[in-house]
Amino acid sequence: MMSVVQAADTQLPSDYLLLLSVSLIALGLALFIVFHAYRGYQRNSSIRMLYLACGLGLITAVPMTLSIGVNSLGQMIELAPRVYTFYLPLVTRVSEITGICTLLYSLLITPSKSK
């Protein structure tokens, strides 16, 4: 009889395809929002919108791209488990913290300094 741990370790290729599809849709939506925030910066010459676009990109697009890239690379070459358990989460969290700080900065800039 197969144990629960063994059953959980066997994933079908369709599982990976579904996960990749959902991740790419989320990445596309994130890039769409970042693109429109950047266009707002260009249209209004507002540095606040530039920081907003950068912060959103660091919070959404960078971690998703890293996740997709590292997992895809890990499928082709065998990466050490530490890459998945330490390095990828560390880099992802640093990107998210930097993005949150950038968003906070975009909110704290006074409008007179944004032009």
TL;DR of this structure?
The chain is mainly alpha-helical and 115 residues long. It has helices at residues 4-9, 13-44, 47-76, 81-108.
Would you give an account of this structure?
With 115 residues, the protein is an all-alpha fold. Helix content is 83%, strand content 0%. It has helices at residues 4-9, 13-44, 47-76, 81-108. α3 (47-76) runs antiparallel to α4 (81-108). It is elongated.
Labels describing this entry:
disordered N terminus, single chain, 83% helix, mainly alpha, 4 helices
What's the β-strand tally?
Answer: 0
Compute the average pLDDT: 88
Which residues sit in consecutive blocks of at least 5 with pLDDT less than 50?
A: 1-7
Kindly name the structural category.
mainly alpha
Main sheet makeup: none
Could you tell me the radius of gyration in angstroms?
19 Å
Classify the beta-strand content into a percent band: under 5%
Shape: elongated
Helix and strand element order:
HHHH
Helix amount: over 70%
- Distance from N terminus to C terminus (CA atoms, Å) equals 69 Å
Number of helical segments with 4 or more residues:
4
